[in-house]
């Protein structure tokens, strides 16, 4: 019985530790599994997708692992097609004291600084290859259990147009 109580105490202390670590990470509100829908502009118009995002706490919550998957239904083949498959790692650069993201998508690697717009709203920007402008992505978690993402494009860095949106709900902590 004593061994069972000790084991249970160790397991519970692990849960408390992970929770405390997530609470100490200013991006801890992102952790969980999120599902919903979104759209993005393509050459043929708006493309609608079903989206799942999984954000996990790694290495005592010093690193967040982000997995994103977007699928759409092909009415001709009657199958789901993957239209977005990305993986990212968010961590703090201790030299600059800045939260940064490294994202991987279709063989490309993107490095971006995480900018805090407010306590639960973040943004990152990146140049479009060929000096063709900039893209920025803003994610708003200010409504409990909701993730609203907006992607924008600008040729000049001043005028922005919305090119994508996501609306997700947290389904698992």
């Amino acid at each position: 019985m004593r061994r069972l109580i000790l084991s249970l105490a160790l397991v519970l202390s692990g849960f408390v530790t992970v929770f405390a670590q997530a609470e100490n990470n200013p991006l801890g509100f992102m952790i969980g599994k999120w599902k919903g829908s979104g759209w993005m502009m393509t050459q043929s118009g708006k493309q609608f997708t079903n989206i799942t995002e999984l954000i996990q706490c790694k290495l005592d919550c010093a690193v967040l692992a982000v997995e994103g998957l977007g699928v759409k239904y092909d009415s001709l083949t009657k199958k789901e097609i993957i239209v977005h498959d990305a993986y990212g790692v968010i961590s703090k650069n201790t030299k600059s004291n800045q939260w940064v993201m490294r994202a991987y998508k279709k063989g490309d690697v993107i490095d971006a600084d995480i900018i805090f717009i407010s306590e639960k709203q973040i943004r990152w920007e990146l140049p479009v290859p060929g000096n063709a402008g900039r893209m920025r992505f803003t994610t708003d978690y200010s409504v409990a259990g909701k993730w609203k993402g907006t992607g924008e494009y600008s040729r000049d860095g001043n005028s922005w147009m919305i090119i994508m949106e996501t609306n997700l709900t947290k389904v698992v902590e």
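Residues 1-21 have pLDDT under 50 and may be disordered. Residues 2-172 form a domain with the Lipocalin fold (CATH 2.40.128.20).
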